[in-house]
């Protein structure tokens, strides 16, 4: 077996592992009280419900967020950087946008994003391999 074949085999094994472990994690999370599962597969829990306006897909939002894999390893965090981040909702992954669209300004939600509405087969970092389930805590600070 050559190097290319070995790398492909390892990637396939990682994909299968990530899919299996991610599904098990999502199934357990879905059993928790106050967790809502949407038809897309997005799961969310309201930590704090704000009373401001809700954004639309045409909006740019200002958020604090903390993103981890299912093992709790951080792959991205505006909280750690201590600087909120702004994003046009049309430019973020589907699962992130879908969750933020549910949030009135002032809200904080926990989102569990399956890979199909996340990064799919892309390897984003050592913490976030192909077909990884992501967990985000997002606080919607403002609509810009």
From TrEMBL:
Which Gene Ontology terms cover its molecular function? peptidyl-prolyl cis-trans isomerase activity
Q: Which family does it belong to?
A: Belongs to the FKBP-type PPIase family.
Q: What is its EC number?
A: 5.2.1.8
Superkingdom classification of source: Bacteria
Which species does the entry assign this protein to?
Faecalibacter macacae
Cite the Pfam families for this sequence. FKBP_C, FKBP_N
Q: Report keywords, A-Z.
A: Isomerase, Rotamase
Q: What is this protein called?
A: Peptidyl-prolyl cis-trans isomerase
Q: A GO biological process this protein is involved in? A: protein folding
Q: Extract the InterPro entries matched here.
A: PPIase_dom_sf, PPIase_FKBP_dom, PPIase_FKBP_N
Catalytic reaction(s) noted: [protein]-peptidylproline (omega=180) = [protein]-peptidylproline (omega=0)
């Amino acid at each position: 077996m050559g190097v290319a074949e070995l790398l492909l085999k390892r990637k396939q094994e990682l994909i299968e592992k990530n899919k299996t472990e991610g599904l098990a994690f999502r199934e357990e999370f879905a059993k928790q009280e106050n967790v809502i599962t949407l038809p897309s597969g997005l799961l969310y829990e309201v930590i704090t419900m704000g009373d401001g306006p809700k954004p639309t897909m045409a909006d740019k939002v200002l958020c604090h967020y903390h993103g981890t894999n299912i093992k709790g390893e951080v792959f991205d965090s505006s909280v750690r950087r201590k600087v909120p981040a702004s994003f046009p909702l049309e430019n973020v992954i589907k699962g992130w946008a879908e969750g933020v669209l549910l949030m009135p300004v002032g809200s904080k939600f926990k989102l569990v994003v399956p890979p199909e509405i996340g990064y799919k087969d892309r390897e984003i970092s050592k913490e976030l391999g192909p077909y990884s389930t992501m967990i985000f805590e997002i606080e919607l600070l403002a609509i810009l």
